[in-house]
Amino acid sequence: MAARIKPLDPKTTTGPSREIFDGVQAKIGMVPNLYRTLGHSPAALSAYLALNEKLQGATIGLALREKIALAISQTNGCGYCISAHSMLARMGGVDDKGVEDARAGLSSDMREAAALALAVKLVTDRGWVSDEHLAAARTAGLSDAELVEIVAIVATLTFSNYTNHLAHTEIDFPRAPNLPGE
Q1: pTM, full prediction
Q2: Which of 66, 72, 88, 130 could be cross-linked to 157 through a Cys-Cys bond (beta carbons 3.0 to 4.6 Å apart)?
Q3: Is residue 133 part of a domain?
Q4: Among residues 153, 80, 144, which one has the least CA distance to residue 122?
Q5: Is residue 3 part of a domain?
Q6: 78-103 as b/e: b if 16+ CB within 10 A
Q7: Whether residue 146 sits in one domain with residue 71
Q8: For 166, phi and psi rounded to 5 degrees?
Q9: Which of 43, 23, 45, 26 is nearest to 34 (CA)?
Q10: 110: pLDDT confidence band, cut at 50, 70 and 90?
């Protein structure tokens, strides 16, 4: 399916988006198509990158953040983000079974399972999580800081998922198996 919002070319882009692209290129060695699409609005691209950067200092560790990203992207049906976060999760030490389980919102670890369940509930119930679901998350050991961080991760992923849905962003990461709609 062809892109409905054409990603900017980092080599010919000028202005604030070019500066951001140059920084991303220097940091990770490429400018992903999602960023190239968000670059149509330097404000949107800057906001997205800033939120992701700040979440790197979250109480929730990298592996769980990536598992939450996978669960949310699967729930929202975003093949681009499933592919990107499958790669990032593996780079963060998550094995293939962990990636597959996270996409299904599952984990054998009680605390992780509660975090994934809460994240999925936030998406499916549009933020209206019941007292029982919140109590289950707390019983599993999630702190108030982690609860708030899960909301931030869900918001960030929803932003990228919906951007990719709108734009039909071409996947430029190793394609994950069994993507929604395929």
Answers
A1: 0.96
A2: 72
A3: yes
A4: 153
A5: no
A6: bbbbbbbbbbbbeebebeeebbbbbb
A7: yes
A8: -65, -45
A9: 45
A10: very high
